[in-house]
From TrEMBL:
GO terms for biological process: 'de novo' pyrimidine nucleobase biosynthetic process; 'de novo' UMP biosynthetic process; glutamine metabolic process; L-arginine biosynthetic process. Belongs to the CarA family. Small subunit of the glutamine-dependent carbamoyl phosphate synthetase (CPSase). CPSase catalyzes the formation of carbamoyl phosphate from the ammonia moiety of glutamine, carbonate, and phosphate donated by ATP, constituting the first step of 2 biosynthetic pathways, one leading to arginine and/or urea and the other to pyrimidine nucleotides. The small subunit (glutamine amidotransferase) binds and cleaves glutamine to supply the large subunit with the substrate ammonia. Composed of two chains; the small (or glutamine) chain promotes the hydrolysis of glutamine to ammonia, which is used by the large (or ammonia) chain to synthesize carbamoyl phosphate. Tetramer of heterodimers (alpha,beta)4. NCBIfam families: CPSaseIIsmall, PRK12838.1. It comes from Agromyces bauzanensis. The gene is carA. This is Carbamoyl phosphate synthase small chain. InterPro entries: Anth_synth/Amidotransfase, CarbamoylP_synth_ssu, CarbamoylP_synth_ssu_N, CarbP_synth_ssu_N_sf, Class_I_gatase-like, CPSase_GATase1, GATASE.
């Protein structure tokens, strides 16, 4: 057990765009940061949260009061770096106690230049965000803490709105790379990296896929030329309404009969490709304890979420795709607010879920979806082989 006294004597302030101010102590790097303030309800898994590219552009506030007690390690990273714009906690742990811990949380925040704040009433702030909605905010410490109230608020109001923001280029890989299949190889999958997490790639490889991760700049023609057995769209940050190019790519590949699986952002983009709209949730779903109903089985799954946007589709009936892809059903929905959490195409090999079935640091209720994807790809390949044999 290593004692690591936090360096939290310097003043800091969290400023919301509606003018509310919460004074606390600096945590992590000193300076100023701007972003959309959101809250995450997980009792654990802060390292996975911090390194999830879907949180790019957001100041993340943990609702669990005591954060940092297990430190940081190199095994639970969901990407190569910390992506959050800022970090808000109530009581940072003064002691790191875990056999895998290599560093303290504050060490990594400081090393990554992440400006944070602690010692604030996160419960009160969460209740306010639940009522008023997620909003732009800023954390100010060090020299930035001495700015006037008006100067700080002006900076916050000058920050970017998440609505209409495309962040895929910020988080995607610049170059393609491949993870080889583990065990029996069944084929290859092209993974469009919109902010993909390491655990997602690992689960796909474990299902027998050669996982070809490609940058978000790839074209539909380039995808089809590589002849993958399936296509996967990852999670990612930003507004799906600002990703027309990825929607067009998906429509083209779906029309070519390529099997598709999407999660989170990939669910929203499938919704748009099928002809549905998307909209911004008041405060989103973020955490590892969201109850979702699987309509096919009637089973309630506890799932991991990180999304501020959702698909606008009817949950009470089968719909017809306005883009010519046949019948579509909402396969899953959130029991807290009836938000669409999954889409299933009945006439083409494509489905998606809004939550994160790889659920690193969370429940594993939805892990079967990777098996479902594997089975869909195998069935689609068998069907094509049979059709080609009949034609011959």
């Amino acid at each position: 057990m290593t004692e690591t006294l936090t360096r939290t004597h310097d003043p800091a302030v969290l400023v919301l765009e509606d003018g509310r101010r919460y004074e606390g102590r600096a945590y992590g790097a000193r300076g100023r940061t701007l972003g959309e303030l959101v809250f995450a309800t997980g009792m654990t898994g802060y390292q996975e949260t911090l390194t999830d590219p879907s949180y790019a552009g957001q100041i993340v506030m943990m609702t669990a009061p005591h954060i940092g007690n297990t430190g940081m390690n190199d095994e639970d990273m969901e990407s190569s770096r910390i992506w959050v714009a800022g970090f808000v906690v109530r009581d940072p742990s003064r002691v790191v106690s875990n056999f895998r811990s290599l560093r303290s949380l504050e060490d990594d925040l400081e090393e990554a230049g992440i400006v944070g704040i602690c010692g604030v009433d996160t419960r009160a702030i969460t209740r306010h965000i639940r009522s008023a909605g997620a909003m732009r905010a800023g954390v100010f410490s060090g020299d930035a803490a001495s700015l006037t109230h008006g100067e700080q608020l002006e900076l916050v109001l000058g920050g970017a709105e998440m609505e209409g923001l495309n962040l895929s280029g910020t988080v995607s890989t610049a170059d393609s790379y491949t993870l080889p299949a583990e065990g029996e190889r069944i084929g290859s999958v092209a993974v469009l990296d919109l902010g993909v997490k390491t655990s997602t790639l690992r689960y796909l490889a474990e299902r027998g896929f050669d996982v070809h991760v490609v940058p978000q700049t790839i074209t539909a023609e380039e995808v089809l030329e590589s002849a993958p057995d399936a296509l996967f769209f990852s999670n990612g940050p930003g507004d799906p309404a600002a990703s027309d190019r990825h929607v067009d790519l998906l429509r083209t590949t779906l029309r070519e009969g390529l099997p598709y699986f999407g999660i989170c952002f990939g669910n929203q983009l499938l919704g748009r490709a099928l002809g549905f709209g998307t909209y911004k949730l008041p405060f989103g779903h973020r955490g590892i304890n969201q109850p979702v109903l699987d309509r096919a089985t009637g089973r309630v799954e506890i799932t991991a979420h990180n999304h501020g946007f959702a698909v606008d589709a009817p949950i009470d009936r089968v719909s017809e795709s306005s883009e010519g892809f046949g019948r579509v059903e909402v396969s899953h929905y959130d029991l807290n607010d009836d938000v669409v959490e999954g889409l299933n195409c009945l006439d083409i090999p494509a489905f998606s879920v809004q939550y994160h079935p790889e659920s690193a640091a969370g429940p594993h209720d939805a892990n079967y979806l990777f098996d479902r994807f594997r089975e869909m790809v195998i069935a689609n390949r068998s069907e094509h082989a049979t059709t080609e044999g009949d034609d011959a």
